[in-house]
Write a structure and sequence with these properties.
Elements lengths: L12 E6 L6 H11 L3 E3 L3 E2 L14 E2 L2 H9 L3 E7 L2 E6 H9 L3 E5 L2 H10 L4 E6 L3 H11 L4 H21 L2 E4 L3 H17 L1
Parallel strand pairs: 1-7, 1-8, 2-7, 3-4, 8-9
Antiparallel strand pairs: 3-6, 5-6
């Protein structure tokens, strides 16, 4: 099944991409989007501060803790979680709209969120992106230049727990040693999911 120019009148599929910070999830998602013309990349709502270069509505929807709590109470999230003291959530309405339009919904979310999504959408495919080595992960996180030393330490400490959860709960494990190969593996998983 070819991926480009493939449209469907049937309900779409949910693909969840997770992995430790710095593993290359966002880069893989961007390349996957270029390979398919019917992908909706979910944009999360967050309470964390906007970082340099991030755009409202493209990277995240940035809201206050109060606004986030209001959306929780209104059941506006497909899933939500607290990560490093900040709240992140996936807007339910936009996901449903994309699924009903026959799109592949790509969710780049953490392990906690993925488990919540799998309960709601049992057919969702969970893909965990692994670093080739822990040392490489540290190098990537530091190399991004987006996190201070304290954040780097927190992210590295959480990586081991995330990887253990990935082995336990995910349908597929993809090692991001060579980016092109990792992207190709994810594309094959998606093609199989939408072909079933």
């Amino acid at each position: 099944m070819s991926s480009k120019n493939q449209q469907s009148s049937v309900r779409g599929a949910i693909i969840v991409i997770s992995g430790p910070s710095g593993v290359g999830k966002s880069t893989i998602c961007k390349q996957v989007i270029e390979r398919f013309d019917n992908v909706y990349l979910s944009v999360s709502v967050t309470t964390r501060e906007k970082k340099a270069g991030e755009q409202e509505g493209k990277d995240y929807f940035f809201v206050s803790h109060d606004e986030f709590r209001k959306q929780i109470n209104a059941k506006n999230f497909l899933e939500y979680a607290e990560v490093f003291g900040n709240l992140y959530g996936t807007p339910k309405d936009k996901t449903e709209q994309a699924l009903n339009a026959g799109k592949i919904v790509l969710l780049e979310i953490d392990v906690q969120g993925a488990q919540q999504v799998k309960k709601i959408y049992p057919d969702a495919r969970l893909i965990f992106i692994m670093p080739p080595k822990h040392r490489e992960l540290e190098k990537r996180i530091v190399g991004r230049g987006r996190d201070d030393e304290k954040d780097v330490e927190k992210r590295l400490a959480g990586a081991g727990l995330e990887i253990a959860a990935g082995w336990q709960h995910y349908d597929f494990m993809v090692i991001n040693d060579k980016l092109e190969q990792a992207v190709e593996e994810v594309v094959q998983i998606i093609n199989k999911a939408i072909g079933e």
